[in-house]
Amino acid sequence: MTVDVQGMDSERKPREGGHGSYGGYIGLGLALGLAIGAGTDNLGLWLPLGLLFGWMLGRRKKRKGTGDPDDSGTQGG
């Protein structure tokens, strides 16, 4: 069942400029974590670290792009 809302598209539009999406950075971090983990024979440590580093890099780029130093994404409170 679909519901049509007046003035809204049913298709999802890609975000412009990549703001709000960390997918590319997380993928890069995971790839680096996999490479380092395979090289050091410690995947259990480096995969989560790669995920974290990728998320942090994407977060930093988003903050720099928006110019908002407190871009936490949460509502005030």
Task: Explain what this protein looks like in three dimensions.
There is one protein chain. The chain is mostly helical and 77 residues long. The protein has a domain at 21-63. It is 55% helix and 0% strand. It is built from two helices and no strands. The longest helix has 24 residues, at 43-66. It is flat. The N and C termini lie far apart (37 Å).
Helix content: 40-55%
Number of helices: 2
Shape: flat
Query: Could you list the spans in which at least 5 consecutive residues all have pLDDT below 50?
Result: none
Order of helices and strands: HH
**Proportion of residues in extended strands:** under 5%
The overall pLDDT, averaged over residues, is 78
Name the features.
2 helices, 77 residues, mainly alpha
